[in-house]
Every structure is written in structure tokens, then in C-alpha cells.
């Protein structure tokens, strides 16, 4: 909506990601399915030391119980010490996500913030993270990968088996990751 009235949004994916020239720690891109439409979403995490005996877990745009589980799994997989730090996780643009395919991006954003390392700008991640740290396949993986390729992303971290079924774009590299530890090491 503008001062002149309602205006068409040609590419809604631009609403849910930040536009930047260089990567920053604590961010990772994914593709969520809203209805039947794939939409690029940026997930962000901030980790801050605290002296509070009960560190805060602030969550916006994602189910807080799911994020708490992903924090615990990421802490173990990345050998991070998060139990004594405040951890904040949010979606850009206020989008509400319930898509389990966003788990891997949430975990990578947390690991990125915790290690102060960046995820490259041309990289995105899709996959469900289990309690054991395994990466599971997700529905509509081909549509998600096609949307990322259309938007110019060249490296996609995805669950095992996705590369065999995805329609191949020669400019896109699909890196299959079996575990969260493997995904973190790959980034």
C-alpha cells in the first residue's frame, strides 16, 4: 500500500528478505511454501552474552517451541555454547512461518550468529532438522529449488535425494547434506 493506494507486488519474495551487498553473520535464506506458492524468506538470528541466570529466547515469525528445539540441536551440532546466551530468531518482513522446510535455515542462522561467520549471499537452505540432527526431505522440493534458481541463488543446501529428483539448472549447485553438522561444515 502506498500513499496513492494499493499497488501490485510483482515479486513478493522481495518483501521477506533484506537487500544487502555483503553477507552478515546470523542470516540465512530459505524458501517457504505459502499455500501453493514458494516464497523466499530470510531468517535472522542474534546471539548475545547475558548475566541473567535464565537467558532469553526471543522468537518472531516462527513457532517458539520449534525454535527452542532447533537451538538445542544446533548447540550440539555446531559445538556452540548457547545455554548462557540470549538467542533471538526472527523472519524478515514479519512473515509467519510454520513450514518445517525452514528448519535448516534457522539452524544455519543460529550457527552463523554463534560463530560470527557468514552464509554466502548466493546460498540458501531447505530441509527439516530432526532431534538427532539429521536433515529430512521436504515437500515441494523441486518448486523451492526452481524459485531459488529463478531468483539467482547458485548454491542450495538440501536433504539427501533432492539432487536426483530436481530439474537441473546448470548454474545451480545442490549440496546434499545428511546432518546439521555436515551443513554447518559445508557453509
The number of helices is 5
Strand order of the largest sheet: 1-2-4-3
Q: Extract low-pLDDT stretches.
A: none
Question: Beta-sheet strand percentage?
Answer: 25-35%
Q: Could you give the count of β-strands?
A: 9
Radius of gyration: 16 Å
User: Mean pLDDT, as a whole number?
Assistant: 89
In sequence order, what are the helices and strands, one letter per element?
EEEHEHEEEHEHEH
End-to-end distance: 37 Å
State the major sheet.
Answer: 4 strands, mixed
Q: Based on helices, strands and strand pairing, what is the structural class?
A: alpha/beta
What would the principal axes of the Cα set say about the shape? globular
Helix proportion of residues, in percent? 25-40%
Provide a compact summary of the structure:
The protein is α/β, with parallel strands linked by helices and 187 residues long. It has five helices and nine strands. The protein has helices spanning 64-77, 103-115, 141-150, 162-165, 180-186, and strands spanning 27-34, 37-49, 57-60, 85-91, 123-125, 128-129, 135-136, 155-158, 173-176.
Amino acid at each position: 500500500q502506498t500513499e496513492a493506494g494499493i499497488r501490485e507486488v510483482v515479486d513478493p519474495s522481495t518483501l521477506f528478505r533484506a537487500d544487502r551487498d555483503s553477507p552478515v553473520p546470523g542470516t540465512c535464506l530459505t524458501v517457504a511454501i505459502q499455500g501453493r506458492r514458494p516464497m523466499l524468506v530470510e531468517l535472522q538470528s542474534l546471539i548475545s552474552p547475558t548475566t541473567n541466570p535464565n537467558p532469553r529466547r526471543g522468537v518472531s515469525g516462527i513457532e517458539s517451541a520449534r525454535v527452542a528445539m532447533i537451538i538445542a540441536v544446533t548447540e550440539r551440532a555446531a559445538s556452540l555454547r548457547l545455554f548462557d546466551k540470549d538467542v533471538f530468531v526472527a523472519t524478515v518482513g514479519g512473515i509467519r512461518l510454520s513450514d518445517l522446510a525452514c528448519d535448516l535455515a534457522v539452524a544455519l542462522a543460529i550457527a552463523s550468529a554463534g560463530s560470527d561467520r557468514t552464509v554466502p549471499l548466493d546460498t540458501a537452505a531447505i530441509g527439516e532438522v530432526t532431534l538427532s540432527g539429521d536433515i529430512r526431505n521436504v515437500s515441494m522440493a523441486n518448486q523451492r529449488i526452481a524459485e531459488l534458481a529463478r531468483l539467482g541463488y547458485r548454491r542450495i543446501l538440501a536433504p539427501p535425494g533432492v539432487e536426483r529428483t530436481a530439474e537441473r539448472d546448470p548454474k545451480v549447485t545442490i549440496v546434499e547434506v545428511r546432518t546439521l553438522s555436515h551443513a554447518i561444515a559445508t557453509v
